[in-house]
Design a protein that fits this description.
Length: 200
């Protein structure tokens, strides 16, 4: 295992290096001291065999990000719901991605949009993409589902949380009390019950 180390004197992360990390020893000690500790492994991007073996050894769930699912590799894409495993956490998107609506409006090409529409069996638009991705996440066999509030609210690019490698303008979106409504809670509860997530 390794982590990317950037000297404190550097202004950009590209001027770093991979440094070997203790891996198994570290997580063994954590497990001894905190036997109920639950860890989600960020297994996005290039993952080395030692990371896979560490995850398997400790039973760490990986991440399934739906925004990554609908490219040309869809049938075998690990992020696609039909390929999810129980020991996983499914996300519509993460803090480092655009919102579901903005992804559809600004990043997904026409082929990706068409694949998503075929996958869910209905025409996907900027107005309904967040609802359908949330539904896919909730019906996944993954043990846990994480739904960003921006997606629950169907917000656009202006509500994006973080843009990796951008120095300013990140982490500024805020949820306001009036955005948390009874109809939204009712809809989320209904999906939670329909897909059995209230008993997992």
């Amino acid at each position: 295992m390794a982590y990317w180390e950037v000297p404190a004197t550097e202004s950009i992360a590209v001027n770093g290096q991979w440094v070997e990390a203790p891996g198994m020893d570290f997580f063994s000690r954590l497990s001894d001291v905190f036997p109920d500790l639950r860890i989600i492994a960020e297994d996005l991007g290039t993952i080395t065999p030692d990371v896979w073996s560490t995850m398997e050894h400790f039973g760490f769930p990986g991440m399934k990000v739906l925004l990554f699912a609908f490219d040309e590799s869809l049938p075998r894409n690990a992020y696609a719901p039909h390929n999810h495993t129980k020991n996983a956490v499914v996300y519509t998107g993460t803090h480092d991605n655009n919102t579901a609506r903005a992804w559809f409006e600004m990043e997904a090409d026409e082929k990706t949009k068409k694949r998503l529409s075929h996958y869910v069996g209905k025409a996907i638009t900027a107005e309904n993409v967040h609802t359908e991705l949330i539904r896919l996440a909730m019906m996944s066999v993954a043990d846990a589902a994480i739904l960003p509030m921006q997606d629950l609210l169907g917000l656009g690019e202006w509500a994006r949380m973080n843009r990796p490698a951008r120095e300013t303008g990140n982490w500024q979106w805020r949820l306001t009390p009036e955005q948390v409504t009874a109809p939204l809670a009712k809809e989320l509860l209904a999906m939670t019950e329909i897909y059995g997530r209230n008993s997992k």
